[in-house]
Amino acid sequence: MGVVNVTPDSFSDGGNWFDPEVAIDHGLRLVEEGADIIDVGGESTRPGAQRVSLEEERRRVEPVIKALAQEGVPVSVDTMRAEVAESAIEAGARLVNDVSGGLADPVMPRVVAAARVPYVVMHWRGHSHTMDTRAVYADVVTEVRDELAKRVDSVLAEGVPPECVVLDPGLGFSKHPPHNWALLTHLGSLRELGYPLIIGASRKRFLTRLLAAPDGTPRSFGGCDDATQAVTALAAAAGAWCVRVHKVRPNADAVRVAAAWSSARGGYDRG
Ligand code: PMM
Q: Which residue puts its alpha carbon closest to atom 5 of ligand 1?
């Protein structure tokens, strides 16, 4: 899944694709590089970000989704708002990526249920301006798994078909670096819930800190692409269904390596 943030203020690429024409070209380039899905978002979710209005979010994403969909690109809309999801689906989006897992807008699961499109339910504890203070866990893997299981029960009760549910541990969302690493190294626990998993590690702060200079200066976001690729290979080998990334080609290659790795190991184990 290649990311196109049509925002002036996202984490690592804020402002790069704010112009719709540039965003559309970028999406098409990511498809050429091997993306199977393009995730179009119009609201930054970086820690501390303030919300944009519904009208502004819709104005940002709609033309980009429409143009990419017309080119036959499978498009996902990254939104927490049911009304944005609804108009995105009308414009041709085929997947809804809701970082709040239906908590920010209680109407969202019903919109998804009516459209019968895949629905990414991410683990989330609150909006950007509060999320860091909510990063408190006794056992992050168990708590994230249990909170996701509750979200799944709730969206299924609203009519979302089980085959449409995709889960995401929400790296960086109310999570400090040790939380992210614990989740990444225990994907098997999350897979036990029985749904495909999507992982969004690309250019996140825990990588900028892992790769910090000796004086503690975090690595730049763009300087984390090689580390993202390493996480992709490990997550794909651990059974992730999809990775959400800014730079597609090296991550698409990493997924292919992981697939060959898993298949060769399976073949050998079976004798
Ligand atoms: N992260 C961001 C935005 N949307 N969606 C999903 N499903 N998972 C994520 O981890 C995720 C997301 C924030 O990252 P960005 O601002 O660099 O796009």
A: 99
Q: Could you read off the pLDDT of 210-265 as tens digits, one per residue?
A: 999 999 999 999 999 999 999 999 999 999 999 999 999 999 999 999 999 999 98
Give me the domains of the chain, ranges plus CATH numbers: 2-270 (3.20.20.20)
| For ligand 1, atom 8: residue with the closest CA | 200
Helices (H), 80-224: 82-91, 108-115, 140-157, 177-184, 187-191, 205-210
pLDDT tens-place string over residues 166-215 = 999 999 999 999 999 999 999 999 999 999 999 999 999 999 999 999 99
d(CA 117, CA 11): 27
**Catalytic residue from among 244, 249, 256, 265:** 244
Q: Is residue 208 within 6 Å of ligand 1 at its C-beta?
A: no
Binding site membership of 168 for ligand 1 (Cβ less than 6 Å): yes
Q: Which two tokens stand for residue 94?
A: 């085929």
